[in-house]
Amino acid sequence: MFANMASTAAGVAVGSTVGHGLSNMLFGGGSSTQAAPVAEPQQQSFEERRMGGSCDIQAKDFTSCLNATSGDMTACNYYLETLKQCQAAAAQY
């Protein structure tokens, strides 16, 4: 039950971040032309993996990437796919 709630919360956070990223990309909002370095993904702790974990780390990695690249979805695709995989795995629990 907790895994479903955490997955839903992560999905909402990602949806909001993606929406903001897309609107910034389409309508402006970022004046920076240089891409910032992409954050390294963090590893889940043993406890998170054992308990089915939540996707908080993947959601934060994706959000950090979007913030660092001014909403560049192409540059952050790896993090988005990782988040989707985590949510699919969490849905099984």
Give the tags.
93 residues, mainly alpha, CHCH domain-containing protein
Molecular structure report:
The protein has a domain of 57 residues. The protein is 63% helix and 0% strand. It is built from four helices and no strands.
Could you give the topology of this structure?
Elements: H1 2-27, H2 46-50, H3 56-68, H4 77-91
Question: What would a concise description of this structure say?
Answer:
With 93 residues, the chain is mostly helical. It has helices spanning 2-27, 46-50, 56-68, 77-91. The mean pLDDT is 73.
Mean pLDDT across the residues is 73
- Cα end-to-end separation: 8 Å
What structural category do the secondary elements indicate?
A: mainly alpha
* SS field, number of helical segments: 4
Uncertain segments of ≥5 residues (pLDDT<50)?
none
The helical percent reads 55-70%
* Extended strand count: 0
* Series of secondary-structure elements, N-terminal to C-terminal: HHHH
- Relative strand content: under 5%
Main sheet characteristics: none
The backbone outline, from C-alpha atoms, is globular
C-alpha Rg, in Å? 14 Å
Region (Disordered): 32-51
Protein name: CHCH domain-containing protein
Organism: Leucosporidium creatinivorum
